[in-house]
Queue: 4 jobs
Job 1
Amino acid sequence: MNPMIVRAHARLSTAPAYQTFLVVFLPVLALYLLTMQQANVESNFDAVASALPAWRMAQFGDLDLAQFEQLPFIFDVGGTVVSNRPPGISFLSTPLYWLFGSDTFAGAVPSLLPATATAALASAGAVGVLHLVLRRLAAPVVAIGAALIFAIGTSTWSISANELWPHGPAQLFLALAVLGMASERFFAGGLAYGASLLIRPVTAIIPAVTGLVHGWRTRAWQPILLVGLGSFIGVAVLLAYNQAVLDTWSPAPPSYGEAFVDRAGRQSIAGYVGDVLGFLFHPKYSVFVFSPFLLFTVPGLRTAWRTAPAWTKSSAVGGLAYILIHLRLNRFWGGLAFNYRYALELLIVLSPLLFLSWQAWYDGAGAVGRRLFWYSVAASTGIQVIAISIGFTNGYLV
């Protein structure tokens, strides 16, 4: 092996966590900023409705979006026109709008560049924190490699970092929550879970299940109480915001969430099974088609489960409960033309167990199996490159 590579490997193997975090975060951020969506007319409705409150707050100090009333997800509440996006995603890009935003319009709406840069920052941060989580399970160099594969081989790149979807910011706070669980800093983990549900309210399922499972597995009350308390702060902020802005105490306001609750009541068992299978294997929208390297994380699951730390198992159960309920509430394909997005939060909290599963398989795999894995990583990366390269025109913004 090249002596320079050997020396670099040795340095990384003994480097402190903040240094290896930067080794992951900085190049991933550079990649995400270079490839993020910049043309407003190619932005989806969710990203626009999420960015406008941040722009308005930075420019005028209020949430009045009357000039954008014709856009989707913008509606009248008691005489005030507002966005129906959750508060976490609506305000996350406010700092960048304060710094760089202006009243200059690009098409029908202000520039979305500060919002999109926020998505890239959050997504790169999520990958960096994921690496910190994986450092607790493997050598730093291996954790770096695994995080980088996640960064380029999943739709974290083509969805989370490409526009201000809720997924990138939610992934960041969920990764911080998993790190809190791994460090036994349960209240801090609960606060991070609470921040994630302010961005994507349905993720409240994850701390509810994770805290209970971890407390049961460790025969301790602290995880249940502290994770619950920290995440409940997020719930309280969400309810207060919904009352103040959307005129309802419901966590699922009529403007958005009630449609999902109604769908859960109408969906047949066959329809639900179809959504689960589609989520996994659909040729246009599934995780295993658009990130085929994930197939190689499955064979070692039984071995990984036997040896995994309690926090890894608790996080995995919380993530699985989340996605099974989510698929009852919403269509698996997420309104996309192709690719997947609803799996992104799941993948963050499930990644520690999937990593151990992959490691158990890879250690015993032959040369052919290992070669196929690396081919699948290359294929996953190529697929995400193609996904980023294909644009569309949003008729509302022309």
Job 2
Amino acid sequence: MEEKTIGQNPTEQAPQEEGGGWGAEAFEFFKVLIVAVAVALPIRYFIAQPFIVNGASMDPTFEDGQYLIIDEASYYFFRAPERGEVVVFRYPLQPKQFFIKRVIGLPNERVEIRNGEVWIKNDEQPNGFVLPEPYLPEGLRTNGDTEVKLSDKEYFVMGDNREFSSDSRRWGTLDRRFITGRALIRAWPLSKIGVVSD
């Protein structure tokens, strides 16, 4: 099959560039680098971002040292965080540090922890309901008696390893502006690679 070159008459040969040396090569490399950065930065800051799990607060769902890809685009462009999703956020008391927790309470809800259970009260269920948590190990109870009313931009988050998690029970509610994105893909270790399910 005959190869075709876009943009020139096939009966004519393209003119050959003369000279240039290392300066021309450096300029071409610089152009490629600029294009690569222009493509990569929006992806890195607005679409997806890698994180490494540090600590045991999300055991057994996520273990220390696992490598995650975070979906930032969904929350930035399309929708708000939903109950049960695992989110990565800037720790409100030290914003340079990132935490990973699960969304338990949504804006304008009341969250109560009593007798080892998590209760949610909202407009749809003003009398409240016990939050089903199938992601927790069987028999695990949530310690710490707490009652919190969330504002229209606040979330209540907790780690799945309830006994060893520093979360909203300790440092309070999470403002929406601190949330970076949701855990989307577990990229390491290879034996556990795949899409994260809530």
Job 3
Amino acid sequence: MPATVIAERVEWSGSITWFRENVRRLRPEHRPVDPADRLSWAAGDAAQCDLWFPPAKIPLEDGTSVLLPVLVIVAAHSRFVTAKMIPTRKTEDLLLGSWELIQQLGRVPRRLIWDNEPGIGQKGRLAQGVAAFAGTLATKVVQLRPYDPESKGIVERRNGWFETSFMPGRTFTSPADFNAQLADWLERANSRVVRTIKARPVDLIEHDRSRMLPLPPIPLQLGWRERVRLGRDYYVRLDASDYSVDPQVIGRLVDVTADLDRVRVRLDGRIVADHARVWARGSTVTDPTHVETAKRLRQQFQQPRPTAVGDDLTRDLADYDRAFGIEGVA
């Protein structure tokens, strides 16, 4: 309730500035109590996950610069940090990035702790594909309730550490350059003593891994997947960008797949397009061979087809009489 409303309710007639300052002083004494427990993290039990948005725009292929998310996963027991910049915060890219970072850990934490990130799930319901991802890894995705930052305070503090220790004085030419610099810095960061545990993450990670789950024996089917019928313009759309496809398969059903680096299109298992994935939205990626093929097919279509008339196209009318059994009838 604003101090001005309180003053009106109690019929205050003095200085509103004095009244407002005293209300501000009294508010903490009447605020509801929200205790924060001290949490302990067993080895192999959990990894805290979050998105960090660096306060610097990253140059992209089309010359624009944008803010991009960095997926951060921290092993809660050892405080070992892994992180990678990803193109979007959509489910497909979040799962692809999570799998890469889990592979860097070498084992699977028994729980992946998230807040209510839309690409992972909201209001207790996981986004499409997240449950299958967790089931394949035999892990559990835990979504925190709102207003509970303490439960993943480890990764939140690492995000702040990135801004104060990694970002100052750095410039980046591309997302790949950002990831290369971040990976190099994390090697040194994981070798520093963490004050709260009085140990280095690199010294504790092996014990942490020993209590984690093994990586799945089969490769995960992750990323963008869609089946579409290729139109006359021989382009397919993925994440707001268009990619050319071999025009010879126009009108056929093709399978579009993509990971963080490549976009591939297949027809019956045969690759008919393979492009580097662009992170800029609204881009058009064209393979020159596809343009040449389209030009050749267009010329063939526009050329008139000659019709050859010869003796082989004429037939004796008596053949029809014999076919209908009227041969010899007057």
Job 4
Amino acid sequence: MKKIFLGTLLMLSFIYGESRAEVERLIGNMFMVGFFGTNINANSQITKDIKKYNLGGVILFDRNPVNKSKPKNISSPHQVKTLSNNLQKFANGRLLIAVDQEGGRVQRLSPKNGFSRKYSSPSQIIKTNNFGEYSYMAKELNSVGVNFNLAPVVDLAINPKNRVIVGLGRSYGKNPKVVVSSATKFIKSMSNQGVLTSLKHFPGHGSSLGDSHKGFVDITKTWQKSELIPYQKLIDNGMVDTIMVAHVFNRKIDTKYPASLSKNTVNGLLRGDLGYSGVVISDDLQMYAISKHYSLRDIIKLSINAGVDIMLFGNQISPKKILTTKKLVDTTYSLYKSGEISLSQLKIANDRINRLKGRL
């Protein structure tokens, strides 16, 4: 009787396609989420999400947007290592654990929470030529179980009035050759320690005037094609693990949607014109450049249809907009059931993500 029942299930699966649980696990692999807690156990919500939905990744932050008196995920090297080990235990070693560790103003693992040093910003390191810092940074990330660094920034410092990239020293400069050379050294240092990287912010954020954390950013009049050079060179040189797409709007590329939601930008410009075939990750889709203008359903639908593989929801921008993994997966499954996204799109994205994870 048991064999007949199993045979019937297999036949139904063949006729009707994947079960809901199977589709949800494909969907879950496409999300990277922020969560609250410096330690976890089998009963933690993030643990349940990893096991049920095959969650693709998590992103760790030091600053807690809900309770500023407590750290969100990072309080000490020992604590982060224990947290990472436990996360991987529940994920069977298949979880992307990410931080933003650029150096300078963007450094989640810092001396204030017990880590070894304050790393130079990209603009500082160009002046000192001390690229050896990146080897120490990579070793430190690896030592605490962080396997994905959302860096380097390859935006060109085109606009001196740019506050979010140039003003914060996050760019290696306006010369594409210098940016490519510097980013290559960063990537090689990370790779030597088994840490994946992400070029950002495609198709270029260094010419903008606004900050996409705070609202709509239009780069139509300021963006230059030279901003694509670092991406093209690094793709051609086989130096790219992933590429992060920005929330900037460029009417010359897409008259309707910002880059992170734009098929013209991701599948057209990046995958088509530049020949990139790897993983594309969104910038945080809760940034106000996106979340103030689109519903969650439209954000997910447009991202997947644009060609984004990993959708990042950091739960970091506003304490009033905490999104659960269940909400993200349920919304995406509803889009799949309605035919607004396809099973083949989910499988293609999963193939890319799993190949990336296979390199860890």
